[in-house]
Write a structure and sequence with these properties.
The protein has four helices and seven strands; from the N terminus they run αααβββββββα. About 25% of the residues lie in helices and about 15% in strands. It has helices at about 20-75, 90, 115-120, 280-285; strands at about 145-150, 170-175, 180-185, 200-205, 235, 260-265, 270-275.
Length: about 290
């Protein structure tokens, strides 16, 4: 009798599994090192770039506020109305958005006569996200990372007074009654910037040495307090170079937490990034009105 062939297929038994060879191990290690290098180098760079972009956006918002302020008042906001009164940051608050924490600020009154809660109300657009601060406000008032450009520091043009040669300088009081300023105006207009809007700096990142945040003597008092010029204004030019690093000494100058660069708002509304080794003479040209 003939047997019917079985339909089952006979499979060969699998051989023993091959383990990792030395070559496989080397490949895995190389891939791991490459991935680690990516994490340690590329990602921090991307984070730093993101923080710099956020800082630029804050400066652009400040620029939009300045343009709106000028459109309504027909002059640039002064660095401060007068000694001890509101600064440019306070004056721009209403132009930064309908809802802002300084709505009850009375510009006719001195800084010290404002409600403490209002004085200490911080606004995010006045901070650089790359700079690590222990607090956004001190006992006197809110701080900030930006300062108005008051000039090039030429001693012939006192940067804290009415003869400063920058764009954001001391205001002019027109009417005053005791401690109340009833009428005032700015001294500078966009039309008076002789170098052109694209070549005149308005606001920049102010330098505060690491570990000195919140200290008035190092230019980090309240951004709203018109008593201490270096807290809301700075200069740039010969003798006032951009800070070489976050640990550089305080010099009423500009500087940032972005490695190798410092960012500024330009009068045309753009934001310009300057290398920290920019010539002091070139910097001085950009920080003056060109009168």
């Amino acid at each position: 009798m003939n047997r019917v062939p079985s339909s089952r297929t006979h499979h060969a038994r699998p051989g023993p599994r091959r383990g990792f060879s030395r070559l496989d191990l080397v490949v895995v290690v190389l891939l791991g090192v490459t991935l680690l290098g990516f994490v340690l180098v590329f990602l921090p760079r991307q984070r730093g770039h993101g923080l710099r972009v956020q800082c630029m956006n804050n400066l652009r918002q400040i620029g939009e506020g300045i343009q709106a302020f000028h459109g309504e008042r027909e002059f640039l906001p002064p660095a401060r109305i007068a000694d001890g009164y509101a600064t440019w940051a306070v004056l721009l608050a209403p132009y930064a958005g309908r809802e802002h924490p300084l709505q009850t600020w009375d510009a006719a009154k001195r800084f010290v006569d404002q409600d403490v809660k209002v004085r200490r109300a911080a606004m995010l657009i006045f901070f650089c996200p790359a700079r690590t601060r222990p607090a956004a406000a001190g006992p006197d008032g809110a701080m900030g990372d930006f300062a108005g450009v008051a000039g090039n520091g030429d001693p012939k043009h006192d940067w804290t007074g009415p003869n400063a040669n920058g764009a954001l300088i001391l205001g002019e009081v027109l009417e005053r009654h005791d401690d109340r300023i009833k009428k005032w105006r700015g001294r500078v207009t966009l039309q008076s910037l002789k170098r052109g809007l694209g070549y005149t700096l308005l606001v920049g990142e102010k330098h505060v040495p690491d570990g000195r945040f919140g200290e008035v003597v190092h230019g980090d008092g309240s951004l709203y307090d018109g008593r201490h010029p270096a807290s809301f204004s700075r200069v740039g030019g010969p003798g006032f170079d951009l800070a070489s690093s976050p640990t550089a000494p305080f010099n009423s100058n500009f500087g940032s937490a972005h490695p190798g660069r410092c960012q500024f708002l330009v009068a045309d509304g753009s934001v310009r990034t300057l290398a920290i080794d920019t010539s002091a003479d070139v910097l001085g040209e950009l920080t003056t009105r060109g009168d």
